[in-house]
Backbone:
RNA sequence: UGGGGUAUCGCCAAGCGGUAAGGCACUAGUUUUUGGUACUGGUAUUCGGGGGUUCGAAUCCCUCUACCCCAUCCA
């Protein structure tokens, strides 16, 4: 498998390789306050998947720190989802509430360290004191309480001596932090509420930011993977663990983009609204993106798993096309499921020249699905076909039955339309047809060519079934709420007709109704007396698509105009420097701009310039490479100095080394702080410019890549870079690229 | 507006200085007793915009733009 791995797996692999952890431990930590949806599935697949791939384990942990919203019924739904997807959480499900005593002790420890205090501001005051994104907040006067007082108050909070909201425990961090989350975050609040597991034992409950990192630590989690909106919380995560000085190893948090799918909603709040508002029949309504919904609809766990693998993991907010999900389920079911005949909208057909009855042996699977199994389909003179499959005045390209065009009854005979019977309103109510006796499927000697084979059922033996046709719940690609609901998301067909074997033999619970789609025997409402099938997904329909594309699809797609914003003006000193650089030293304006605007860079540059009079060469390396290092570090933290950079540039000026090698040497200097001359000497990096040495290498490369030579000669000039790259690789980067370029160009002419 | 993120095809997504992977969707054709499947081909001279460095930039530097997250005693 050359499938590239995602950034999380890359991190995990590195951590394992470096010995940071002996074993990888992840966790799936939902809050049990709602039904899991396909976004959770993504998280489950990531967390359990990584644990599986790297032979570690993944805990299922209920993050139950808020007693007012959580419930045990959600715990069950969550367990169900994980299990259904095929993952194993080991011996037991974990609960953050199990750690409440330990968490309390950690909080006490923080208080003793002077790192946490009991605050008694009101909720509004706390908000007010926090400041805004642009203004610093200010600390509460209660932050001055002594450790003893804090300890006492906190203990009494625990004992339940105070009312809800009277006090909170806060971390003492920084009320003016640019990251709002770090402005003395709340650690505990008072809640005289019944917890679905802890009962009434506690009157204080830990906040997410305090509980989550510690729960991870307690469980020995190594990689704490969550969604993007927790990026800002990572600082607290680290603060708590670091401040407590816990024994390593400890977990680190990484974030990925949550899943969005078009034409659906994924937020717990909106899902709850739909369920409570009665827009859907419950958490397991087949139109919902809940796991329970997909399960009820007939999706397989494999299809969800494949979908999650297919969409990848990254940090960019994105909206996945439902078509991708639909592909996953079709792709999975295609090779698994029996094909049967079902008529959704029946049109009576009387075969006037057929008498009696017979049974036709028909395979459940098409030729390209390597599965065994067949059933008998009854045939007689009275049958039903799909109303869509007959047209009196067909458009061009219509393959089905018409007054002029015969059609094959799937697995059966070819029939021709003889007469169209209509009611008084002109609606077609029946077709009189003739069958061709020598055209039976498998032993056709009629020589009649038909364009298609259609589904049908024998009137007498067919079973009546209810079929529920589901479509997307919303008509808008990015729905806001109930106003965007698709009014046709559910169509119930009470009297569909299906061949009897489906009901009597029950060869499976999922079927392909030929030419229509995949269907699932509803696990709740299905009974032998009243069979009910849910449409999982339709088959791809290139005919339907072709019909629709009658009207032109206009694509206004105005090219987006990029507006360039104002660049911040330079200060006077910066402007003076800029002028000096461009005028006296001959730097181009971009380089001069970079240098002049950055104090550290310009002084570094000046220093190097004092050693070596090579203004342009120095400016380039300082404004590009040194700048990169100075982004993360202060000048005095660098392992190399201006003098060494001057030395490096001198070698480039001398043509001792090429620019490419200079970069390589620079990297080494960043790491070790060694002198450039020494690095060049140690690694033998002196550049090769002698054509007589380079030429044979080029010949070799050319000989090895005849295809690319041909492509190049055919006009693919990009390949020049390929050849140069190869030669440079062969020489360990030492060949003089300019010389190589000229030589290659010449040889390939 | 301060901070933190993210921009590569219609939708996802690889790529980490040397020929712009792959999947979905779309499209053309072959096979087909499912207008399904399978198979074959076509789909980015270009990586949010503009500059710069380099023989060579999606990748390094500068700068601008757009979008997302943060001011719950939710998670």
Residues:
């Amino acid at each position: 498998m050359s499938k590239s791995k995602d950034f999380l797996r890359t991190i995990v692999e590195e951590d394992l390789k470096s010995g940071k952890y002996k074993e990888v431990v992840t966790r799936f930590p939902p809050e049990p306050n709602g039904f899991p949806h396909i976004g959770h599935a993504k998280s489950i697949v990531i967390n359990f998947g990584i644990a599986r791939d790297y032979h570690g384990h993944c805990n299922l942990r209920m993050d139950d720190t808020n007693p007012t919203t959580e419930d045990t019924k959600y715990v069950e739904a969550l367990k169900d989802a994980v299990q259904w997807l095929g993952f194993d959480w080991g011996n037991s499900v974990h609960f953050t509430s199990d750690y409440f005593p330990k968490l309390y002790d950690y909080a006490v420890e923080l208080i003793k360290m002077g790192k946490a205090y009991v605050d008694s501001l009101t909720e509004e005051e706390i908000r007010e004191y926090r400041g805004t994104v642009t203004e610093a907040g200010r600390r509460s006067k209660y932050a001055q309480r002594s450790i003893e007082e804090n300890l006492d108050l906190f203990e009494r909070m625990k004992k339940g001596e105070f009312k809800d909201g009277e006090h909170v425990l806060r971390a003492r961090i920084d009320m003016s932090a640019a990251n709002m989350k770090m402005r003395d975050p709340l650690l505990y609040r008072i809640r005289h509420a019944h917890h679905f597991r802890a009962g009434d034992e506690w009157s204080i409950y830990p906040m997410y930011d305090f509980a989550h990192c510690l729960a991870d630590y307690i469980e020995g989690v190594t990689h704490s993977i969550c969604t993007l909106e927790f990026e800002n919380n990572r600082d607290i995560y680290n603060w708590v663990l670091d401040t407590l000085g816990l024994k390593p190893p400890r977990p680190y948090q990484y974030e990925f983009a949550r899943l969005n799918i078009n034409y659906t909603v994924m937020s717990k709040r909106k899902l709850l609204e739909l369920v409570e508002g009665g827009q859907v029949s419950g958490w397991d309504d087949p139109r919902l993106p809940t796991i329970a919904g997909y399960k009820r609809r007939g999706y397989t766990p494999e299809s969800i798993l494949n979908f999650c693998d297919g969409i990848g993991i990254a940090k960019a907010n994105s909206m996945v096309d439902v078509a991708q999900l639909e592909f996953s389920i079709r792709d999975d079911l295609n090779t698994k499921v029996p094909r049967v005949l079902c008529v959704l909208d029946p049109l009576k057909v009387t075969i006037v020249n057929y008498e009696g009855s017979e049974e036709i042996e028909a395979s459940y699977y098409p030729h390209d699905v390597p599965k065994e199994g067949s059933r008998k389909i009854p045939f007689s003179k009275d049958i039903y076909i799909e109303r869509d499959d007959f047209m009196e005045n067909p458009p061009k390209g219509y393959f089905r039955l018409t007054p002029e065009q015969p059609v094959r009854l799937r697995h059966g005979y070819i029939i021709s339309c003889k007469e169209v019977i209509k009611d008084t309103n002109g609606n077609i109510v029946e077709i009189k047809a003739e069958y061709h006796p020598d055209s039976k499927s498998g032993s056709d000697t009629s020589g009649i060519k038909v364009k298609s084979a259609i589904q049908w059922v024998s009137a007498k033996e067919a079973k009546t079934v209810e079929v529920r046709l589901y479509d997307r719940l919303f008509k808008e690609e990015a729905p806001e709420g109930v106003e965007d609901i698709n009014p046709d998301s559910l169509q119930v067909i009470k009297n569909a007709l299906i061949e009897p074997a489906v009901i009597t033999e029950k060869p499976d619970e999922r079927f392909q109704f030929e030419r229509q789609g995949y269907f699932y025997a509803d696990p709740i409402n299905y009974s032998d007396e009243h069979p009910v099938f849910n449409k999982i997904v339709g088959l791809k329909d290139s005919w339907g698509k072709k019909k629709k594309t009658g009207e032109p699809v206009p694509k206004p797609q105005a090219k987006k105009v990029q507006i360039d914003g104002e660049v911040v003006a330079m200060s006077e000193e910066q402007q003076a420097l800029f002028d000096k650089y461009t005028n006296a030293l001959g730097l181009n304006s971009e380089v001069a701009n970079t240098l002049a605007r950055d104090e550290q860079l310009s002084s570094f540059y000046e220093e190097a310039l004092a050693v070596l009079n090579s203004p342009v060469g120095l400016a380039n390396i300082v404004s590009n490479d040194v700048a990169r290092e100075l982004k993360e570090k202060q000048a005095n933290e660098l392992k190399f100095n201006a003098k060494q950079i001057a030395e490096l540039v001198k070698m480039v000026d001398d043509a001792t080394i090429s620019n490419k090698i200079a970069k390589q040497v620079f990297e080494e200097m960043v790491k070790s702080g060694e002198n450039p001359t020494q690095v060049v000497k140690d690694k033998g990096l002196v550049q090769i410019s002698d054509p007589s040495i380079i030429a044979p290498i080029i010949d070799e490369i050319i000989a090895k890549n005849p295809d690319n030579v041909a492509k190049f000669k055919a006009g693919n000039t990009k390949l020049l870079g390929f050849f140069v790259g190869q030669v440079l690789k062969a020489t360990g980067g030492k060949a003089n690229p300019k010389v190589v370029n000229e030589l290659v160009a010449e040889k390939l002419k």
Observations:
- Chain A has a mean pLDDT of 95.
- The two ends of chain A are 38 Å apart (CA to CA).
